[in-house]
Amino acid sequence: MPTPPKSAACPCGGASYASCCGPYIAGDAVPPTAETLMRSRYTAFTLRDEAYLRATWHASTCPADALFADEEKVHWLGLEVKSALRLRQRKAESADQAEEIYRDSVEFVARYKVNGRAHRLHEVSRFVREADQRGDGALRWFYLDGSFPE
After folding, report:
1. CA–CA separation, 125 vs 63, rounded Å?
2. Which of 6, 86, 89, 141 is most buried by a 10 A CB count?
3. Going residue by residue through the chain (150 aa), what tens digit of pLDDT does each one get?
């Protein structure tokens, strides 16, 4: 899987790959917001980085099948974030202890070509922030699922 040069613009539309999504995909940093995670996941799609996509996908909704087909030739053209919404809920587990649950949604449009034909993906993605059960237990954002307006 090719990685953009450090000075190259980030596929998500950010500054350089090295100062935008690169540290998240390399595992050197954790995306601090759902929007940042969504942008890094878009970049991972452009790089066909299945390992990163699976690591950031909530275990309850992550597909078992391969995410990419070898014969699939997708050329990603750009990303436009339409909106990001944070919802914070307080879930009481007992009288003296409460757990905060963070949920975000990010609406975006991703443009791409398959075999020279242009397409656009308009999605409202849902994210949840919780302890990483597959790693060190630290709080992290995970992609949960998405809906497709229109």
Report:
1. 16
2. 141
3. 667 776 789 999 998 999 999 999 999 999 999 999 999 999 999 999 999 999 999 999 999 999 998 887 899 999 999 987 665 554 444 444 445 568 899 999 999 999 889 999 999 999 999 988 777 878 999 999 999 997
**Phi, psi for residue 13 in degrees, rounded to 5:** 100, 0
**Contacts of residue 117, Cβ cutoff 8 Å, sequence gap at least 6:** none
Nearest to 9 by CA among 18, 1, 32: 18
Give CA–CA dist 48/69, Å, rounded. 10
Name 15's Cβ contacts closer than 8 Å, sequence gap at least 6. 9
Bridging pattern class, strands 117-131 and 98-114:
antiparallel
Q: Which domains does the chain have, with CATH numbers?
A: 17-147 (3.10.450.50)
How far apart CA 29 and CA 78 sit, in angstroms, is: 23
